[in-house]
Amino acid sequence: MKIAVLVSGGVDSSLALQLLHEQGHDLTAFYLKIWLEDELSFLGDCPWEQDLEYVKKLCEKLNIPLKVLSLQKEYHDLVVSYTIDQVKIGKTPNPDVLCNRLIKFGAFYDKIDEKFEKVATGHYAKVVKQGDLYVLQKTNDEIKDQTYFLSRLSQKQLSRAIFPIGHLTKSEVRDLASKYDLPSKDRKDSQGICFLGKIKFRDFLKQHLGVKTGDIIQFETKEKLGDHEGFWYHTIGQRKGLGLSGGPWYVVSKDTEKNIVCVSNQYYSEEKRRDSIKVSGCHWISGNCPKNADLQVKIRHGQGVYDAQANFQDDGNNGFIKIGENDQGIAPGQFAVFYDKDVCLGSGVIL
Q: What are phi and psi of 62, to 5 degrees?
């Protein structure tokens, strides 16, 4: 097949390119430049330059053509602006979920030639065709599984997507990278939001939203414990970065109108345990809301999956979710991602 392969310079996408090359496909590697150069240059060196060096070495090794494609404007308009707007109103958005839907499997699809039958990435996920339906499935590695970040993809997007390392665990990927002597075989996994590289999200927000001093209040006693620089720097369940003694302290709520952050050192007490979630803006990968109310749900990326009972209304657009356990870290603005065992059904935004 003629395949466009998105490469980032990391070990996962590098191995994806290597495996497809070994299978004999007609490949072109693409590096997406989404680093906001003008906006973030004051915060540090451009991380994309180092990433691109790894990509170039790999493509030269495999003799695969490489194209660098700038999607900076699209990324800023579709992902960054949304992220800032959500943080401003006290929500905790997930830019990487939007990046997959709107950039890697969205704007990029629109930019490349229709002759590319498939677009490959280094995601830990599987696409399986069942009849006329494309199904998104979890990988064998529960820790690295990235279906959470792919939960907003459509049938049209999935029909063109291919995940060459989706059947592997992270340790297997590392072993194969060493076997093939890939340039990125010893590179550490990247952390944080994709467009920021090594820059802290807090520093990015300070550039856009500035500083507005407010009170840190103890949830139980209403006593003032300290000051913060703006409620937008804090999210529900946060423990680090509060600068308070006598903890551990956790953020339990925010008053965006009064710019108050409420914290508690009795985070796991019974009155703070929550097991109900309202969601809106639900997206279903199959195009149809599931009829079965007994599902599993993730409220953040990672291993934690809850058994849940779901009741969806308005043609599946809104829903009320009751999870089987309690969770103190339910953060408005994040995505609740729904599963039927190993099948990712779609997601909704937590209200």
A: -95, -5
Q: Beta strand pairing status for 335-340 and 294-298?
A: antiparallel
- Which contiguous run of DSSP H or E holds residue 252? strand 250-255
**Domains identified in the chain and CATH numbers:** 2-122+164-179 (3.40.50.620), 211-270 (2.30.30.280), 274-350 (2.40.30.10)
**27-67 per-position pLDDT tens digit:** 999 999 886 655 555 445 556 778 889 999 999 999 999 99
Q: What are the CA-CA distances from residue 332 to residues 21, 229, 299 (Å)?
A: 42, 20, 10
pTM: 0.90
Pairwise CA distance, residues 94 & 96, whole Å = 6
d(C-alpha 56, C-alpha 122), whole Å: 17
C-alpha dihedral sign at 317, 322, 325, 326 = positive
CA 23, 25, 29, 32: dihedral to nearest 10 degrees? -90
To 5 degrees, how large is the angle CA 213–CA 217–CA 219? Answer: 150
Which amino acids are annotated catalytic?
99, 194
